[in-house]
Amino acid sequence: MTFTFRTVDPLKDGELLHSWVTHPKAAFWMMQDAKLEDVERAYMEIAADEHHHALLGLRDGEPAFLMEKYDPAHRELVGLYEPRPGDVGMHFLTPATDTPEHGFTKAVITAVMAHLFADPAVARVVVEPDAGNKPVHALNEAVGFVAEREIDKPEKRALLSFCTREQFEKAVTA
Asked: CB of 172 within 8 A of CB of 143?
């Protein structure tokens, strides 16, 4: 599967993102009760933030998933771990579907990681999924993440995990 990426347009993409983040499958995004305006506002804030970026992953030109990248020295993980130069934080969301495709989510996280590591300044990807989100932990491990420890964020108990470029390359070529 081949994916391309484009920056989220909060107003143009708002309805689509709203349908994705309020779906019960996206419970870990903690936007279940968000109204369309809430989602548009959240993504306008990201669009205006130099340390946080939202991208749509496209498959054949059509939106297929959401990816966010952020600087963990300035967002999400400030004070919760010691950031290193070259660290980038990441979230991704594959939307719910009535016709699941075997291997799709793994292809998505692999494409997200390849996109992040395409930037030579990125040395390590940092994630902090909900500690109870076992399916994402397995996906993260499949692309080279190593869990370090659980941390308490304001909104959740999270599993802090890291993946270096070398760990990613080894995992996806194994």
From this structure: yes
Structure tokens of 64?
């297929």
Cβ atoms 143, 171 nearer than 8 A: yes
Under 8 Å between Cβ of 93 and 130: no
Burial (0-12, 13-18, 19+ Cβ within 10 Å), 170: exposed
Ranges assigned E (strand) in the chain: 4-7, 52-59, 62-70, 87-93, 124-127, 146-152, 157-164
48-74 tens-digit pLDDT: 999 999 999 999 999 999 999 999 999
pTM assigned to the model: 0.92
Identify the three-state secondary structure at position 29. helix
Of 114, 120, 124, 123, the residue nearest 146 (C-alpha): 124
SS3 of 50, please?
coil
**Residue 33 is encoded by which pair of tokens?**
């009760």
Give residue 87's identity as a one-letter amino acid code.
Answer: D
55 φ, ψ (degrees, to nearest 5): -130, 145
Beta partners for 151?
Answer: 158
What's the full length of the chain, in residues? 174
What digits encode the pLDDT tens for the residues 90-142?
Answer: 999 999 888 889 999 999 999 999 999 999 999 999 999 989 888 889 999 99
